[in-house]
């Protein structure tokens, strides 16, 4: 067997394999024999059709099958011997059978060769969140809100209130539009974006007030129209929170808590854990984004396609598994392509870091991971977790998780990280 490789681009190669008659003839004869056993031709008993007739009738199909099988067999051997890192399946471009040789041409994408820029001089800011008593009370109030009661208030509307109002719609010139009056429309102000024109006009308004609102088209709406509204506030409603009692606490926590102080401690702990994870995740995203920006590594199309399909499937799950009828999934794919390219580039960069640092995941690493997970969940047993993590179903996933932690460990130890105290961000229920 002879073979030659040719670089087509930084992420593409072609491979030509030349096999002698001695190397390809046994496979060719096997395929002819398999065809002979199954083909039925009038005038011949099944299994007794002459070889020449088999080759005449089925020659192209048989040769294509032989070429595919031999290409698959020898590509793996050559890739391992030559340290080729294919990014996907090789495609059979062409093949030619001669009396003494078989020439096969394959094309495939590869992981590009590159060197990472030195990242030891990079600096990052890590947000440090401190949970205050006020944060705990705000979180408890959000939990209690689902059991609150809407009451009418005379005070001006606040950002979390509901405003009930009548609307009259006008065109851009101020002409009232026919059949465009709406009565008792409910504006839930807390769910409207801060820059929503109705929210901006209604915060501060009280019952009996009339405000004017202008709604302009979005920048990307070429034929959009401007409309004006006259909004008369009829009522402002505000959520009145119930008193926190042991009985109510038992109800809202499904029996987990009956005493207030342990509940407060649990809320604080949950907030601390959540924002500690957020701080860590934000830092890691900042580090990976910087490395992606500084290392514009060429990405194989196959790899980008794979991440794009993953993002599309994630989007489908938000719609229950399939996009609704008429949904423009092509536009969604186009919008997700840059993100898919970043995912692919980060995979290449992280693989390079693992390779440079000679990182690997051992059975001891998996055992330590199982022990940590068991500490988080007292009902879990280390032995049971370890057995699951070592299984074929979960081992690849756990190995990838541990390897990612090791990669980020290398990065965090190499760059400069400065902590910055920050208050907890405000959020609504």
TrEMBL record:
InterPro entries: PPIase_dom_sf, Trig_fac, Trigger_fac_C, Trigger_fac_C_sf, Trigger_fac_ribosome-bd_bac, Trigger_fac_ribosome-bd_sf, Trigger_fact/SurA_dom_sf. GO terms for biological process: cell division; protein folding; protein transport. It is an enzyme of class 5 (isomerase). Keywords: Cell cycle, Cell division, Chaperone, Cytoplasm, Isomerase, Rotamase. The keyword Zinc does not apply. It catalyses: [protein]-peptidylproline (omega=180) = [protein]-peptidylproline (omega=0). Residues 260-409 form the Trigger factor C-terminal domain. SUPFAM superfamilies: FKBP-like, Triger factor/SurA peptide-binding domain-like, Trigger factor ribosome-binding domain. One of its GO terms (molecular function) is peptidyl-prolyl cis-trans isomerase activity. GO terms for cellular component: cytoplasm. Pfam families: Trigger_C (PF05698), Trigger_N (PF05697). It is found in: Cytoplasm. Residues 1-141 form the Trigger factor ribosome-binding bacterial domain. Its EC number is 5.2.1.8. Consists of 3 domains; the N-terminus binds the ribosome, the middle domain has PPIase activity, while the C-terminus has intrinsic chaperone activity on its own. Belongs to the FKBP-type PPIase family. Tig subfamily. Involved in protein export. Acts as a chaperone by maintaining the newly synthesized protein in an open conformation. Functions as a peptidyl-prolyl cis-trans isomerase. This is Trigger factor. The gene is tig.
